[in-house]
Amino acid sequence: MTVVKKELTLEEEKLTIRDISIAAEAQTKQGDTFFLITQRWWQEWLEYVNQNQASTVNDGSASEHQFLGGSTALKRPSSINNSDLIYQAASGDSNVGIELHDTLVEGTDYILLPQEVWNQLYEWYGGGPILPRKVINSGLSQTELAVEVYPLRLQLHLMPKDERSTIRISKKETIRELHKKACEIFSLNPEIVCIWDYFSHQKHALMDMEKTLDDANIQMDQDILVEVVNSNSAGGMNSFHENGAADNGMVALVEPSQSNFSNAEGLSLSKGSTRNGNAELSQSQHLASSGTEKTYASTGVSTRGSTCGLTGLMNLGNTCFMNSAIQCLVHTPEFARYFREDYYQEINRQNPLGMVGELALAFGDLLRKLWAPGRTPVAPRPFKAKLARFAPQFSGYNQHDSQELLAFLLDGLHEDLNRVKHKPYIKSKDADGRPDEEVADEYWANHIARNDSIIVDVCQGQYKSTLVCPVCNKVSVTFDPFMYLSLPLQSATTRSMTVTIFTCDGSALPAACTVTVPKQGRCRDLIQALGNSCSLKHTEKLLLAEIRGHLIHRFLEDPLISLSSIKDDDHLAAYKIPKLAKNSKFLQLIHRREEREIGISQSSVGWKPYGTPLVSPISCDDVITRGDIQLIVHRMLSPMLRSENPGFNCVSRSKASSAAANASRLTAASEACIDSSLPNDDPRQKDMSSSKLANLEKLPLQLVDENNACIDLTVGEDKSVKLSSSSMSILVFVDWSQKLLENYDTRYIENLPEVTKYGPATKKTRTEPLSLYSCLEAFLREEPLVPEDMWYCPTCKERRQASKKLDLWRLPEVLVIHLKRFSYSRSMKHKLETFVNFPIHDFDLTKYVANKNNSRRQLYELYALTNHYGGMGSGHYTAHIKLLDENRWYNFDDSHISPINEEDVKSAAAYVLFYRRVRADHHHHHHHSVSNGAVSSAGQHNISSRK
């Protein structure tokens, strides 16, 4: 029976594998091995063993299924070939160094087979390469089994030698195992090697030998520092100092083997780090449990009897987005008090908008755990499970946006704790000219009648929103509640733009005009600023165009085009034209000059566009002749005539008076062109234009007609020109010969400046940090609604793109401010790394509050914020939180907590800021910032300080 496989039928192969699979899946446990097999081969095998499903004959003889379904039998698959799953290594067929392609997807690219199944298939078919992977515990409760298809790939940096190596290791391995492997790779004596978390090339923390890489929050492709330390002193490494970083206290190092001081596992303190918190407070349980009272080296924080609230949250796999938001809420004094008291009677179990109270209960339980004495980090698994059930968008182990979670959480908690059991339906009345105070209070009362919870008491404020119809100027005022403010990060709220202004009537030379406009403004803002700057007459208007390649790329006719669509290196022209008769077209004059080959023959390459096109309106109510176009062009070019040229009968010397003289000389001729009051066959008009033209030199003009043919305008000046009915523009080329260039000074049309030039002069203004106040101003500034949000104007009875202005009206006890660092478009996600300078004390909102009856100063102080480091979709969240009882700041990084200095709270990573109202009586004393006997905005709850 050596040739077993020959005698197996398809059906038997199929059943054998099925039985093995069922048995194996049932008893899978941590540490088992699964094997990757390419989906392509597996699919082929499945089709092979299932090919005679339709048949009742099962003896598998070939003659039998030749006839089934009329198709020929599928051949037995050849040997297993997993090569499409790996990078082709040149290391022969040894399994060392086999790397999977980085982005394989289970079920699309590969299937995972239990060991017994793989063994059986391999015995039948052979092949390879063999790709074994281990089963690990993962998931919320660490009870879900998962196959670790991609073990961690870590970059080891050996110091001081500066060698590098890449290692693959399971995230379930301990740091001790990593230490051992690193020593093997670099052939080092383990006694003198330290392993550091080297996230983004900064020494963060010595790593605790007993922890797994998973617990230490080590991510794929992270850097690890392998440091060789000279051990001269008797105590091994205890005299060693982390170079530069930990000069503020002792650093106890890990002795890999027979440690003399077993208590100092990985306790390292340094300040200013962004991740993994350096002074790992999880240490404190370890130290406290040893029965001896110890204090942190040089920080003065006692580990016993210290404040509650310093409890970390474990990272359950990319859950830092959740942990950072939760810590900020948990350390909001009003919430800390509320959820530690008896809040159960306020739970609303029948609110269809809520989570039947479950979210509030899960949050309350978590908050109590975090405020309980003891420093053991809490795993927020029950909370995460509840969250995922009600908000599936936060399920799984992807990184999410901590602000989106926060918004959901505040909303969900509010509905779960809403004291209103039956919401009345209230229709808001129109303001109709009543005083704002009255309307605002009415809106707020209506809001409170439907929404009344601790969340409303603490976090909700009220905006005044004013909409103005652009057509009938109808003003609509509403007062809407808000839970947080989402502020835009405009690096500058204004922008300077340079546009060159051209006249069509020959009255002035082209001139560059620089104006300041709102950065997020529209074309109408630019046109208005230009009009004011170049003293536009009320009978004129500006036609804005973008110039590319010496042609008009587009007319910016829609006043609502966003200025952000105009780039700094674009070139804009504005043409001053009369606000004239409806039926007119634009004559576009395009300049061309001859380009010559540099070479022996000096042959001409042809006429190429150059300079800036000029534009003039042309009336279509009557027949236009070739002579008329000659006159219009003469008039447009007249300011550039060189006055000293005798052939152009002009005597005056100065450029301006020459332009004026030329203009007046041409006025009569011009009027003849534009004056459509004269009937077309009136002899006076013809005489006038031909006699005027007689004094002028013919210009080499060509008109592009409706068939795209060029018509020479230097001959037959009385011939009429047929204008295309479809196009708004008439193209005329003027070909500048050397002779013609001697008569005109064309530099005025040649160098069109860019919209914004960043010369050295503007550098300084660009690097000034953005302040939180200017973000707030940008948010409150009047702006047109985006086209998607058109407003239905009750007066016009049409949807209009109204302009909208926001004002703050009623401010909450706790003001949450979200800095809009992330922008999403269909193709791109983008993160702004702008540093925003936000006040920690005395954030003064007095002048931004529109309700002037409220005379007291509106001062706020910062007590918590979340930070986001890194790019989109990946990245890491932490929180900086001020424990108000202690009046000191801490960095909360998942399970790691470390003290930080107040000046280190501000960084470009700040994402969501939490401010609390400062009572007028003590806003000068930063140190007692715990509110005493304050009344919340809705006036229901007396909030006393927690001591």
Automatic annotation (TrEMBL):
Protein name: Ubiquitin carboxyl-terminal hydrolase
Enzyme class: hydrolase
Family under the similarity heading: Belongs to the peptidase C19 family.
Location of the DUSP domain: 8-136
Chain spans, region Disordered: 263-300, 925-947
Domain USP: 311-918
Swiss-Prot/TrEMBL catalytic activity: Thiol-dependent hydrolysis of ester, thioester, amide, peptide and isopeptide bonds formed by the C-terminal Gly of ubiquitin (a 76-residue protein attached to proteins as an intracellular targeting signal)
Record's keyword terms, sorted: Hydrolase, Protease, Thiol protease, Ubl conjugation pathway
GO BP terms, alphabetized: protein deubiquitination; proteolysis
Known EC number: 3.4.19.12
Organism expressing this protein natively: Nicotiana tabacum
Protein origin, superkingdom: Eukaryota
Pfam family for this entry, one: UCH
Reported function: Recognizes and hydrolyzes the peptide bond at the C-terminal Gly of ubiquitin. Involved in the processing of poly-ubiquitin precursors as well as that of ubiquitinated proteins.
Gene Ontology molecular function: cysteine-type deubiquitinase activity
Biased composition (Polar residues): 930-947
SMART domains noted in UniProt: DUSP (SM00695)
